[in-house]
Amino acid sequence: MMRHLISAADLTRDEAIRILDTAEEMARVADRPIKKLPALRGRTICNLFFEDSTRTRISFEAAEKRLSADVINFAAKGSSVSKGESLKDTAQTLEAMGVDAVVIRHGASGAPYRLATSGWIDAPVVNAGDGTHQHPTQALLDAFTMRRRLVGPDAGIGRDLAGRRITVVGDILHSRVARSNVDLLHTLGAEVTLVAPPTLVPVGVGAWPCEVAYDLDAVLPKSDAVMMLRVQRERMNAAFFPTEREYSRRYGLDADRMARMPDHAIVMHPGPMVRGMEITAEVADSDRCTVVEQVAAGVSVRMAVLYLLLGGNESDTAHPRTEEK
Q1: Is the pLDDT of residue 155 over 90?
Q2: Are residues 285 and 196 in the same domain?
Q3: Per-residue pLDDT tens for 257-266?
Q4: Which residues pair with 194 in a beta bridge?
Q5: Is 1 a domain residue?
Q6: Do 157 and 124 share a structural domain?
Q7: What pLDDT is stored for residue 324 in this prediction?
Q8: Does the first or last residue of the chain, that is N or C, have fewer Cβ atoms within 10 Å of its Cβ?
Q9: How many CA atoms lie within 13 A of 35 on its CB side?
């Protein structure tokens, strides 16, 4: 296992599958009366969040506590960062405290990479989302959910997503989730198609390992999974489409469009969902929608990543020891 997790593109097929298989083991912990492993007892992990977050921050904290780690939660608001402290000074403060790993979410693309390679801190760094660049653990939890639904929990062990057709719809331009999923799903053998208005397709997308389409209705019948993305208005400084109604009419997923998907196909969303725009309430609340499963998968996947980065070995991965007392 690599020392840091900065980008989904850094993972080999074997590394990605090892994380997914380990996450299956971790998922079984959630079904036990005592949902804890002693694997990281005595280790200190800092959640360094320079951007607001709900699901990702809580998911990492839950994962760390289930592994028995000591957790430090750092938010930029109300800290010395709001007074002008640099990332370097913050990192050196954490180094002086002796943290064993840092989970960082930052508005600037490349900040986790800078932290991991600067020499400011001697600890594994996990990227929890940086600007419009990458969000590797989100891609892993999405792949975990797809593998469970499209391959099967038991049959899926050791398996990739070869031949599966995944469609990602919406604001590709500003989405680190889209970039991460394209990288990881390609590594796992899936065929990815991006669907978006031309104004929300990034320059240079032709070099990405995926297809690009502009007609959602034409792609749905051959999709095994459809991932809807939120339009990230907070990252926009211009009008990228005429109206919300027009966007929803062409790129929103409603019950009629969902009916055109294959019977086994699933609907995904990284959250937060804007009901009525990119997805209707009827679709979001249907049995085919995996949003709640993705949240649960996030804890298991992040447990697996932290466990492997902080020294989990092959035998421990196969038989993680549960703390029952």
Answers
A1: no
A2: yes
A3: 999 999 999 9
A4: 168, 212
A5: no
A6: no
A7: 42
A8: C
A9: 12
- Amino acid 53: pLDDT: 83
User: Which of 264, 187, 276 shows the shortest CA–CA distance to 221?
Assistant: 264
- What's the domain range around 226? 136-293
C-alpha dist (Å) from residue 214 to 20, 56, 86, 164, 205:
32, 30, 42, 20, 13
Q: Is the pLDDT of residue 322 over 60?
A: no
DSSP β-bridge partners for residue 105: 49
Amino acid at 240: F
**Percent of the chain with pLDDT strictly greater than 70:** 89
Q: Are residues 140 and 281 in the same domain?
A: yes
pLDDT at site 244:
80
CA-CA distance, 265 to 166, in Å (whole number)?
A: 10
When divided into structural domains, the chain yields a total of 2
How far is 126 from 129, CA to CA, in rounded Å?
9
Q: What is the mean pLDDT of the chain?
A: 89
Same domain, 187 and 73: no
How far is 322 from 325, CA to CA, in rounded Å?
9
Is residue 210 a part of any domain in this protein?
A: yes
CATH code (residue 232): 3.40.50.1370
- b/e burial code for range 250-284 (CB count within 10 A of at least 16 → b): ebbbeeebbeebeeebbbbbbbebeeebbbbeebb
Are 77 and 47 in the same domain?
yes
Q: What would the two tokens of residue 293 be?
A: 């499963």
The residue with tokens 């994380």 is 19
Cβ neighbours of residue 263 closer than 8 Å, sequence gap 6 or more: none
What CA–CA distance (Å, rounded) separates 24 from 88?
A: 36
Q: Is the pLDDT of residue 321 over 50?
A: no
DSSP for 120-178, written as a single string: S--S-EEEEEETTTB-HHHHHHHHHHHHHHHT-TTTTTT---TT-EEEEES--TT-HHH
First to last CA, the chain: 30
